[in-house]
Amino acid sequence: MIRNLDISLIRAFVTVASTGNMTTAADRLALTQGAVSQQIKRLEDMLQIALFDRSQRKLRLTRRGERLLGLSNRLLALNDEIIAEMVGSAVGGTVRLGIP
After folding, report:
1. Are 62 and 53 in contact (CB under 8 A)?
2. HSE-up of 52 (CA within 13 Å, CB side)?
3. pTM, full prediction
4. C-alpha to C-alpha distance for 97 and 99, rounded to whole angstroms
5. Own/partner pairs for 61-66, CB < 8 Å, 24+ apart?
6. In the prediction, which pLDDT does 1 show?
7. Half-sphere exposure in the Cβ direction for 7 (13 Å, CA)
8. What are 51-98's pLDDT values in tens digits?
9. Up-side HSE of residue 15: CA atoms within 13 Å toward CB?
10. What is the per-residue pLDDT across 19-30, written as a single tens digit (0 to 9) for each?
11. What is the pLDDT of residue 56?
12. Complete DSSP assignment for 47-94
C-alpha cells in the first residue's frame, strides 16, 4: 500500500525535535500547542513508532526518531528546493538605490 507523508507533519516533527518543546515549536509554526501535539501523534500513528521519549520534561528523540530527523531534513530541503524552483522569485525587475 502506498502512503504519502504530509509535509506539515514532517515540518512539525523537525521543529519539535529542534526545540525539544511542543510550546516553543507551536510558536515557531504559528500553531497552538495542541495542534502541534496532534500532528506529532498523527505522524507517530502513521509510522507506528514512538518518535519522542516523553519521560522527562524536555522531549528527547528515540533512536527511530533520530533516524527520521535526518531523513526529514533531507525531505524538507528537497521540498523547499522544488517550491523555490517551480514558483520562482516573486520579485522581479531592477532595483535602484539613490543616495544623496
Report:
1. yes
2. 22
3. 0.82
4. 7
5. 61/17, 65/17
6. 64
7. 9
8. 999 887 778 999 999 999 999 999 999 999 999 999 876 666 788 888
9. 21
10. 999 999 999 999
11. 77
12. HTS--EE-SSSS-EE-HHHHHHHHHHHHHHHHHHHHHHHHH--S--S-
Sign of CA dihedral 49, 15, 71, 59: negative
Strand-pairing partners, residue 52, are 61
pLDDT value at position 89?
64
Amino acid at 88: G
Pairwise CA distance, residues 68 & 51, whole Å = 8
Residues in the chain: 100
Residue 43's contacts (CB-CB under 8 Å, 6 or more residues apart) are: 6, 9, 10, 12, 13, 51
